[in-house]
Write a structure and sequence with these properties.
Elements lengths: L2 H12 L6 E7 H9 L2 H4 L4 E8 L1 H4 L2 H11 L4 E5 L13 H6 L3 E4 L5 H8 L4 E8 L4 H13 L5 E7 L2 H10 L7 E5 H7 L6 H6 L3 E4 L3 H16 L5 E3 L11 H10 E8 L3 E10 L8 H5 L14 H5 L23 H4 L4 H8 L4
Parallel strand pairs: 1-2, 1-7, 3-4, 3-5, 5-6, 7-8, 8-9
Antiparallel strand pairs: 10-11
Helix pairs in contact: 1-12, 2-17, 8-13
Bound molecules: iron/sulfur cluster.
Length: 355
């Protein structure tokens, strides 16, 4: 019997729980892996999974895209972005459309690519679109410090960087969710450590297990959660010790502290979450694109007929959206959750017949 089969049997055996159990996978990478490996289909009937707010592209408000398009259409500006952002709709258009109309928008594979682009284009402003969570922020921070060391005065950052933990505070405080356990992202945890999760069992009585991203990793995380629930325990446990320590990555956390300030930020679905965004610290203000172009931080004002906001909060699933699979498809996406490689709608569309 292989390890995964044994885990599936253990999950079934451990659930001496005579009620339904709802577990949230916080992270979009987990969502994709769960669908790809068919994990929902091997769980006992009373154990359900729901997706959470852990896809950075999905939680970025469309007004951020509007700002990026505005900058892209400014004279002498080059925009650098990860590919996932190209098709995400703003309120008016997308970066892809803007590029088709002549804007200089370049897809990068690492934020460090921007250093070379800035070096080669000294008479242009190069703006890096920085979207991501705790895993992305350190490498953006290193890029900013490198730009200073190289005296690249033309490199700027439009920060949409977010901190996951304040969003979890807001989500759990909202009372809209009725979940029994959290599958927590291993990669964020390898930076943050385990400490930031402790409020979840202590304040909300909800167990947490930090998990990796392979099928066995996720099944192990579910097994450990189910055991805690069956035994009436609620603590933070780590099924991903191979990638991080209890304290997290002190070097990465130091970079984040040096380069950024925590600010209130607006999330799709959640609205303004206190302390959930990262802006450039005062010492790096000269690289802040919003200061250079006189822009305010974007504010989410709703998504119209698209239900991404409720899906991010775990209170709806894609098939609850009347646009899913007919109006909204990967070829003709309406919302970010259908575009992002970590989006819940994209995962449902790709891996289920529920459309
Ligand atoms: Fe939004 Fe499309 Fe998902 Fe509906 S199916 S919630 S329109 S992304």
């Amino acid at each position: 019997m292989d390890f995964e089969t044994k885990l599936i049997q253990n999950i079934a055996a451990a659930q001496k729980i005579d009620r339904n159990v709802l577990l949230m996978e916080v992270c979009g990478t987990h969502t994709m892996s769960i669908f790809k490996h068919g994990i929902k289909s091997v769980l006992p009937e009373n154990i359900k999974l729901v997706s959470g707010p852990g896809c950075p592209v999905c939680v970025t408000p469309p007004q951020y895209i509007d700002q990026a398009v505005f900058l892209a259409e400014s004279e002498e500006t080059i925009i650098c972005t990860f590919g996932d952002m190209m098709r995400v709709p703003g309120e008016e258009t997308t970066l892809e459309n803007s590029r088709a109309q002549g804007a200089d928008i370049r897809v990068i594979y690492s934020p460090m690519d921007c250093l070379e682009i800035a070096e080669k284009n000294p008479h242009k402003r190069v703006v890096l679109l920085a979207v991501g969570f705790e895993t992305t922020s350190p490498v953006i921070g290193i890029t900013i410090e490198q730009a200073d060391r190289k005296s690249l005065d033309n490199l700027f950052v439009l920060s949409g960087l977010k901190r996951l933990f304040p969003a979890l505070h807001t989500l759990l405080d909202s009372g809209e969710l009725n979940i029994n356990g959290l599958i927590c992202p291993g990669h964020v945890s390898s930076i943050s450590g385990e400490g930031p999760y402790r409020f979840i069992p202590e304040k909300h009585g909800i167990p947490c297990v930090i998990s990796g991203f392979g099928s066995a990793d996720i099944l192990m995380g579910i097994y450990m959660l189910v055991l805690q629930i069956a035994e009436n325990r609620a603590v933070v446990e780590n099924a991903y010790r191979r990638a991080g320590t209890v304290e997290g990555n002190s070097k990465a956390l130091d970079i984040i502290r040096r380069v950024f300030n925590e600010v209130d930020d607006s999330w799709r679905g959640l609205g303004v979450v206190p302390g959930s965004g990262l802006d450039l610290a005062d010492v790096f203000r000269h690289r802040d694109a919003r200061s250079a172009y006189y822009l305010e931080r974007p504010v989410w004002t709703g998504d119209g007929a698209c239900s991404c906001g409720d899906i991010i909060k775990g209170i709806k699933v894609p098939s609850d959206c009347e646009l899913f699979g007919n109006v909204c498809t990967p070829e003709n996406p309406v919302g970010a959750c259908m575009i992002s490689g970590e989006g819940t709608c994209a995962a449902y569309y790709r891996y289920t017949a529920d459309r």
